[in-house]
Amino acid sequence: MRFLEAIRAALGAIAANALRSALTMLGIVIGVMAVIAMVGIGSGARDVVTQQIRSLGGNLAIVTPGNVTQGGARLGAGAASTLTDDDALAVAREVEGVVAAAPFVRGNAQLVYGGANWSAPVYAVTTDYFVAREWDVEHGRLFDPEEVRKGEIVAVIGQTVARNLFGEADPIGETIRVRNVPFRIIGVMATKGQSSFGQDQDDVVFLPLESGRQRVIGRNYAKARSVGSIFVKFDSAEAIPPGIEQMSALLRQRHRIQPDQDDDFSVRNLTEIAETVSASANTLSLLLAAVAGVSLLVGGIGIMNIMLVSVTERTREIGLRLAVGARPRDILSQFLIEATTLATLGGAVGVVAGIVAARLVANAFNWPTLISPEAILVAVGFSGLVGIFFGFYPARRAARLDPIEALRRE
Q1: Residue-level pLDDT, tens digit, the chain, 410 residues
Q2: Please, what's the b/e burial string for 81-111 (b: 16 or more CB within 10 A of its CB; e: otherwise)?
Q3: Which of 174, 172, 180, 176 is closest to 215 using CA atoms?
Q4: CA–CA separation, 264 vs 260, rounded Å?
Q5: Between β-strands 229-234 and 175-178, what pairing exists: parallel, antiparallel or unpaired?
Q6: Nearest to 399 by CA among 282, 314, 302
Q7: Integer CA distances (angstroms), 71 to 29, 67, 68, 75, 223, in order
Q8: Which of 118, 126, 245, 374 lies at a CB distance of 3.0 to 4.6 Å from 164, suitable for a disulfide?
Q9: What is the residue extent of each domain of the chain?
Q10: DSSP per residue over 325-387, as a string?
Q11: What is the pTM of this model?
């Protein structure tokens, strides 16, 4: 019962000085608003980047051509293709933990259907490519291994290509010309969205590796079964580091590279890149939250100052309450509840303002926001703790007043 009375007395004191209470809460409001807005924007950006990287496929590594030396001149990475179909087959067969090894060749081509045309990236791939990328077909079907082996002139297109060439019409069974080579469409891929580099992954045409390499993309890749890159999908993230070491040793052996020579290929762990980006984004979010937390500290100091002023103004009231039987802990509870209520109300208002600010920034700059319920609870809870921490000294000072001395003060 005494606790409820303390709550009523604290709320009454806040209401009696509404303007001063509102100004006192301002520091907490600004601090919580900044924390919610910055954490929301940072979390949203991190989530988008992580999704874009993971859209490439989970537990994925990519093998690309490395440095090539001809006549004593180092031509640099990717200057010539050093990878072949057989390299991919060997990796899939001999490296532990490999689910799929997908060789592919990339180029660009003008696509023509009737009176419509569109320029898009063209990938010559095997069926393992779709396994590695974890990419499903939405309409129609994918290539079968026999079509890839025979180099059939069939194609699977992305959503962007389908929209620009066919509009709302069904493209399945239609024929498009890819660099004047007719390809029959057998499937339309599911939506993938943008990559981490801002490229539209749905703006693409997939062709069987052999027909795409020989008929469309170019003669350089038609020689010696060479390919541009190899996607390697592992069965778990733990299998990637040892798998990369084993794969590198295998490719060095296959390419007859001497111990004192550099690799003519490079391997990137895309899962590791995703984790690094996520860790960097987390660090940035924490830094922004820490900077915003300074406002909470300032707001807490403001609460302490106002509570000290309140104790001075209400000295006679405190003395009278002590004289008629109130215990020091009752006075302590009243002032602590008053400080905590100020801070918590400020935190609640700050949460609302932070959500509104995050939405405004997101709409103005087309940035994503992700505000979790946990962040809201932590912000409000922390603001309450700020009130308790900074309100304890004024409350303790009020509770330790001597009632006789308090009543003597003017």
Answers
A1: 466 766 676 677 777 777 777 777 887 888 788 778 877 777 776 666 666 666 666 788 899 987 555 444 444 444 467 888 899 999 999 999 999 999 999 999 999 998 899 999 999 999 999 998 888 899 999 998 888 888 889 999 999 999 999 988 999 999 999 988 999 999 999 988 776 556 788 999 999 998 888 888 875 554 557 888 999 999 888 888 899 999 999 999 998 888 888 888 888 887 766 666 666 666 766 776 676 677 777 778 878 887 887 777 777 777 777 777 777 777 777 778 888 888 888 888 888 888 888 888 778 777 677 777 777 887 778 788 888 888 888 888 877 777 666 666 65
A2: bbbbbebbebbbeebebbbbbbbbbbbebeb
A3: 180
A4: 12
A5: unpaired
A6: 314
A7: 69, 13, 10, 10, 21
A8: 118
A9: 2-52+276-408, 100-229
A10: T--HHHHHHHHHHHHHHHHHHHHHHHHHHHHHHHHHHHHHHT------HHHHHHHHHHHHHHH
A11: 0.62
Token output for 27: 């520091």
> Is residue 334 packed enough to be buried (19+ CB in 10 Å), middle (13-18) or exposed (0-12)?
buried
- Residue positions counted in the chain: 410
Residue with tokens 């749905």: 202
Token pair 């009752």 in the structure block, residue: 330
